[in-house]
Amino acid sequence: MPASAVCTKPEDLVESLSSLDTSARLKALRDVKNQIIGNKTKKLSYIKLGAVPRVVEILASDTDIPLLVQSAAAVGSFACGTDAGVKAVLDSGVLPHLLRMLSNGNNKVVEASARSLKMIFQSTLAPKNDMFQGRRIDLILALLNSGNENVSEVAASVLARCCETSEHQKALADAGCLQSLVFLLSGSPKRKEAALDALAALTRGNPDTSAALAATGAVSTIIRTMKDKSPRARLLACMCLSNIGRACHNNYQQEWDIRKSILSTVGKLIDENGQVGEEAPGVLADLVANNEELQKTAFDFNIIERLAEAQCSIAMALGHESEGVRIAACACIKSISRSVKNLRTTLTDERLVWPLFRLLNDPSPAVQASALSAVSNVVLDFTPHKAVFFQCGGVSQLIQLALSMEPMLRLNAVWALRNLLYLADMSVKEKVMRELTVSTLVDLVCDSEEMVQEQALAFVRNLVYGSVASVQQIFAADAAILHAVERQLCVATRPEICTQALYVLSNVAAGNEYHKDAVMDFVAPALTGDRSVSILIKFLLDMSNPQLRVAAVWCISNLSFPESPGVGTRVARLRDAGIQLQLQKMFDDPCTDVKDRVKTTMEQFLCTDQMTSNTGQSVSCRLHPSAALTLSHSSWRSVLAARRKLYCCSNGAANRDAKVKLRAAPWSCGVVGSTMIIYLGGLHVPLSYSGLSIVSTMLSSDCGLDPQVKAISLVVLQSAELCGAVWLIESSIRQFDTRLTCMSFDQMLSGRRGCLLAAVIALSSVILSALAKPGTSVYLENNHYDPALKELLASGGVSLCATVAVCCGITPLLEEFVYRGFVLTSLAAYASPPWAIITSSLIFSLVHFKAPEETLWRDQLVSLAHLVMTEQPRAEVGKAALWRAGDTVGHQRCVAYVEGLGCLLLLCSQLLHKEGKNKRTY
């Protein structure tokens, strides 16, 4: 080889690293470093040849400055960009030598060593905990105050990578790291970015360090950095401010303005290329988490559209090779599926559902857990998704995951099974139980993890909701599931577990006599000798959790349903167990749901004792995934719910005639007649269609009003009558304690005294209306309204819309609300169904009695058929709207005096059937 030839073979260079000649070693170091920079293949080749230990040996033993600089730089080159290189330099024991070089007197050696540390700590393999041993971290902190900007920048970058736990954050803050980093914010752009990176790491999820940073006065500087030219600096400034904002709450308006600025800045950074664009969505997610206002603001800034454009489709993400991307895709589906609209539209595409279900077999437990969370929402109360889930064998996979050793997988799998059974029909329940088996379900109910126990009991709750056949499933295998539920009630301490178990018993108690007796044997065992105390007392006395008390009272309510054959014995046993005494103490419970349910249950106890009226029905409480079943008594919901649930076919085996059961109305018996008299005399006659009404004066031909003014006034008056009826009926709802004195408002409007008082009030209202319009006839000509209404309809525009809204919308809704929702429901709760239907239909037909040539009986039969054959409240409102539309376009209107006859007939019916006389049981 000629003397001028250069040694370029890797083997020769590696050998030269061990040469005794200093210049040869220096030259070999330079050549190796230059060859591996940017060349991963060469780097791996030199690692295999054992070059890294020889380079580290030079760094550890030599004292020559050029050798130290080149060896430290070569170490950094090996560690840059590849985990294999980082592993090789760490295995060679380079870390102590690099740290020792940080205290070297030569700035070049210190800078080269610091850069190598930066390369190492950019990898996930970096020994971050080792940096907090001894005085190693002090060396890095000392470099922050270095006059060399490159060195201080590298030190800040290393600190940012080292700071991962709250202990690390506290140690660095206590060492004065925050003040040094704040000082670096005024340096060069690179040093500023490194300082912001370290500050973001120090304050992430740590209120103490965030508050300490805010106290340094650096917030204004960081806010100004959000307008920096560097996208990286802007992103890091947003990170710091977001961390500080979560920890510190000063001036709300100022904080809100800053958050909006952060949101706007991060939204624009999503469009950036490279690492900034990749990290911006994560910053955005942290910023808007659990903040609905910021989420809406992000929507207004069109950030969602930017995210959608930047990302691939969810279906593609579900099959991505990256585990993190698959997890994020599942989380995205979980969020989208919280909307019922999305479940029925966006997520109906099988191209999205099938890949999600396939992820249940993913090799990564983290992906499986995320997929289970999404599946729980997707299969909830939507039959097409359930069908697809069965087709792809999803039930079997869920059951396998429910038996996993990973608690999170078990929890999410049982949760998905629970939602799969929500509102499911019997065939779905049978399919699931055939694969799950009773023994597996019992094991899940008694699982070692409390959250798994809760979801397993919720699964059982949905399993036994519904028909008698559904309830019967809990008695399979010698009632093993029921016994497991009872054991949990005895030993569990977590309130959520006890709540679910109580609702299971409540649903079972809604079954037949055998099911009720099985529950009774547990909650109030029939013991001889000493009086037994029910386990339900413990939950009724628990004031820490109102849902426990609600569930316990539901169970008692279903056990004391008056129409079941064995109710007398059960009520006696419950009373002996101390249940009734405890319920009497709960009339003033702070929870409204508990108070309402207690009052209904106590009425059932009283009804059972007297055997005179039907005041309740067993109610099966199904579990909604987000909340337990509650009971509300607002007027609209009370009236419409009572009307909607008026007819309920019995599912008991003994009731083969499918006789009618009627739910208790939320009005006491005495207020129905008085309420109707006040309504007709105080609202309907003065405001609506009668000779004395405001509407009559307004629609007369000589009133001088513009048709559009008439139409709008008509809307206002009818709306006022509707609102008045709502308030009047709401005031009659049973919200008063039965122990109030006789001077209470409730009793002043009850019974005979209430009816007479109401009659006086109504008569006074009619007299005042007559005095206000002297000379007006009580009778209204049959053709009075037709010309006026035709004029309003022909006026077009606002007049037409308003008239149609009144005649086909507001008035039918008012009639449905008052005559069927209130009157029929109330009568049905205190009288036999035939009598209630006939009486209500008589009142309705009398009020709508039309022309003399149309007989009363014809309208009576039409109204009776209308009430009996109608099944849905919405259909009733629609039919009433059509009826009213027919009146509007040409039929003749009613006569005012028949309303008084209707009130009189209702009053007679009320007095005849007052306090449950002539009761008939069905």
Automatic annotation (TrEMBL):
One of its GO terms (molecular function) is endopeptidase activity. Residues 801-856 form the CAAX prenyl protease 2/Lysostaphin resistance protein A-like domain. The chain crosses the membrane at residues 754-772, 792-814, 821-847. Its main location: cytoplasm. GO terms for biological process: CAAX-box protein maturation; proteasome-mediated ubiquitin-dependent protein catabolic process. Gene3D superfamilies: Leucine-rich Repeat Variant. Keywords: Cytoplasm, Membrane, Nucleus, Repeat, Transmembrane, Transmembrane helix. Pfam families: Arm, HEAT_EZ, Rce1-like. One of its GO terms (cellular component) is nucleus. It is found in: Cytoplasm; Nucleus. This is CAAX prenyl protease 2/Lysostaphin resistance protein A-like domain-containing protein. The lineage of its organism: Eukaryota, Viridiplantae, Streptophyta, Embryophyta, Tracheophyta.
